[in-house]
Structures are given as structure tokens and as C-alpha cells.
Amino acid sequence: MASALVEATRRKELRELRTRKLLRGGSILAFLLLWEFAGRTGTGVLFPPFTKVLASLWDLLVSGELFDVLWVSNQSLIIGVPLALLVGIPAGIVLGRSRLVDRIFGVYVDILVVTPMVALIPIVIIVLGLNLSARVMMVFIFAVVTVVANLRTGARSVNPHLIEMARAFGTRGLQLWTKVLIPGMLPALGAAMRLSFSRGVVGMVIVELTLVSVGLGGLVMNSRALFKADMVFAGTVVILIEGLLLIRLGRFIESKVAPKGLYGGSGS
Amino acid sequence: MSERIAEAPSRERGDFPAVRPAPSTSRLRKWLMARLQWFSVLGLIIILEVIGRLGFSRVIPPFSDVVRNLVDLARTGKLDTITLSFQALGIGFGLALICGLGLAIATTTWKTLDYVVEPYINAFMSMPTSALIPVLMIIFGLGQTTRIVVVFIYAFFVIVVNTQAGLRQIDPNLAEMARAFGARGPRYLRMVTVPAALPLMLAGIRLGISRALKGMVNSETIISVTGIGALIIRYGRTFDVVGVYSILLLVIVLAVMATGLIQMVENRTLRWEQ
How far apart are CA A123 and CA B252, in angstroms? Predict the structure, then answer.
């Protein structure tokens, strides 16, 4: 009898899941159709239909230009993001655990979190020039602020009851760190890694769209200047896909660093 | 759940467990510690001023020069283009606020709508939104419309997601109890929904205004015709170091003010929650 109820609930859930997937797929399909339609009518030259954009993407792929462009762009990402994590994680932890340091330097983190980083690009370029190091610096800056902010909050909010209990049992110093504090910070660590990817991509793209016209951003901006709308769209699609893929990767890494439910957040 | 709200102020201060007795501190020291952040910023400004005056580096001008330049720019009308920026910001953010709150309420009420809209919301939250700006330039041109659209997109999704989170974490027991006492419609909204969802909603609005500002600056930097962003590019291209710092200072002040305002409202509301 009970199993029949369970069966019915499961069937209902599966049906809900299927309707969800259908609606999702349906709305995406509707979007693509709308795109195609809008491209074929209206201002044809400036708004390419979906199929034309696909064709441009195919051209990019076949000519190998796609890979060149991706490589140039991602150099800054590959160097910048690990650097941001290397610097940001310890910095965030120190800010989170030391009240004094937080009072002195925390202000700047708070300010940087809300500042449009774009405003920093000219300074970076003046100092470093129009080259890879400037781009790496921007990726670094975009990512590091988020990492520090996250680790700071995460380091602060390690369950104080756990710490107190550990201290009561005589845990001190290094052991306190390895056995209590760092495991407590793992969720924040995972989140920081995921966010560093997405912020890094943002930094990578913005620099290329504004001052250093190379790579993907350069492709988009140059195509725009030449009125090649299909290429602009194609380039944008590539950027968006890369962004989404990196988020997926980030989420995967996060799930490995901090498996859900293993290290209880507050009070479990 | 209510723990999270009550914890909120102390979360910011990072209280350590009271296992170690606090060392006795003089009153002066306590006063200093409380204001340490201001001293830190003041210290930095002084350091920058000194480094600038000593002329160690071409790229670090004295702080007073930067401020003076900024005032000059304002006086000679070079900053007038910022009015257009603020117009775009105001309209874009206002629309994002209305539509964002609306969509969040709608998706929590009607699940089907939620299913349809969710992939788009997720997509927009995970993508580098600045990548959309060139495409929007093609569709909407190089004028004010594009900037309003960009500001809207930047702020909209953050507001939606945070408001949804706020609405979703309403304690069902509370809701049921209120309904048992006969609260319906607008009364229910006022007594249950708004107070319970408000903290996260306000957080969403705060993040939204910061995103809106970033959207404004990003779009102007990429479009590069008018506004703060255009000034950033211009001073950058001409290697006008003082100019670049002036605009940076202006941007920072704007960002901090806008966010700080909402943060004050947030703190006021949280205190009331106690």
C-alpha cells in the first residue's frame, strides 16, 4: 500500500521533470526560431538570422581561426586565474580570521567589490602596456577581488561552536587549522574557485572589448567596425559558450572541493 | 532561518568564541580600533600624496593633483556628459527593479512560468554579460537606448534571483499560521511576504545597483561615445595619467555612495528585524 503511494509520487515527479524539460527545450527552440525570423525580415544587413551566424561559426572553425583566437584570449585566463587563486585565497583567509588585518585592509576589498573594474584598465595599460601582461593583470584583478571577498566571509563564518569545542579538547595552532578551520572553509573555497573562473572570463573579455583588441574580443570589435554583423554574433556566441562551459567546470571543481552536505555550514 | 537573520549583524563583525579572555585595552586604543578603516584610507591617501610629490613614479601622481583635476573637469564642463550616464542608469535600474521584482513574484507564484524562465535566468547569471554589449550595439545602435538596455540586463537578473531566494525562504509555518488567522491578499503580502523576504530582496537591490553602475560604465567604455566610459577610454588613450585617476576616483566615489545608501537601508531594516 505504501509502495503504491511512493510509486504514484515518483511517477508524478517524473512527469513534472519531463514537462520541465519540454518547456525548457520548447522555449529555447522558440527563441531560435524568433531569431531566425527576425534576421530574415527587418534590417537584414545588420541583424543576421540564426543560420547565418551558424555558417560564420562554421567558417571560423574550419579555417582554424577559432582556435587561434581562443588560444590568444585564453592565455590571459590560464595565467590570471590560478594567480588570483594563489594570492586571493590566503589573503581572504587572513582577512577573515584576523580582525586587525580586516579592519585595516577590509575597506579596500569592500570598495573594490563594488567598483566597475573597467575604470582600472587604463591605469593597468599605462603601467604594463598593451600586451599580455596587462590582460593577465586585468583577469587577475577581476578574479582576485571576488575570491578574497568570498574567502573572507567563509573564513569568518566557520562554525564558532565547532572551534570552541575543538579548543576545549585542546586543539591548538596548526591542528586547529587543518582539522577544523580549513575543512570549515572548504565550501567557501569551492565557491571561490567557481567564481574565479567566471570573473576571470569577464575580465578577459572586457579588456579585449575595450583597449587591447586581440583574441575573441578583438574579433568581435573588429567585425563590428567592418559591419560584419554575422561575425560579431558568431564571436559573441563563442564567448558565451566558453563562459558557460567554464561555469560548468567551475561547478564541477566546486563539487569536488566541497561535496555538498559533507561539511555542514552553520550548526550541523 | 530566523537564526540567519539574527546572525546577520554579528556575521559582519566576525565574533570569535569567548574562550580567550580579552586583553584590557585603553580607551584610546578602543577608539582607534573602531575607526581603523577610516585611518587606513586616510593613511593610503597620505602615502599616495607623498609618493606622488616625491616623483618616484610617473604613474603615481600626488593625490591632491588628482582631486584638483577632477574639480577642474567638473568646472569646465567636461564632466557634463555624465548627466547622460545617470539618465541611462536611472531609467535602466528603475526598469530592472520593477520588472525584476515583478518577475520574481510571478515565478514564485506560477511554477510553469518558473520552468520556462529558469534556463534564461541561469544562462544570464553565468555568462560574461559584457560580451553581449557589441551585439546590443548592433541591434540598438550607439545611443542611449543601448546603455539603458545594458544597465537593465546587468541589474535585472541579479534582482530577480535574489528576490526569488528571499521569497522562497519564507517559513511555511509562518505563512500557514498567518493564513489560519485570516490574512489574505494585500494583508498577507504586507504582514508575511514583504517582511520575510525583505532582507534578501534588499541585498538583491544593493547588488543590483552595483551591477547597474558596472553595466553603465562597461557599456560606455565599449561604445566609447559619451559618458564616463568614454572619458575613461579617452584619458587612457592619451596617457593622461591624472585624468585616468580622476575618473577612477569619481567612479569609486559613485559606486561606494550608491551601494552605501542601500546598505544603510538594509542595516536599518535588519535592526528592525531584531
Answer: 14
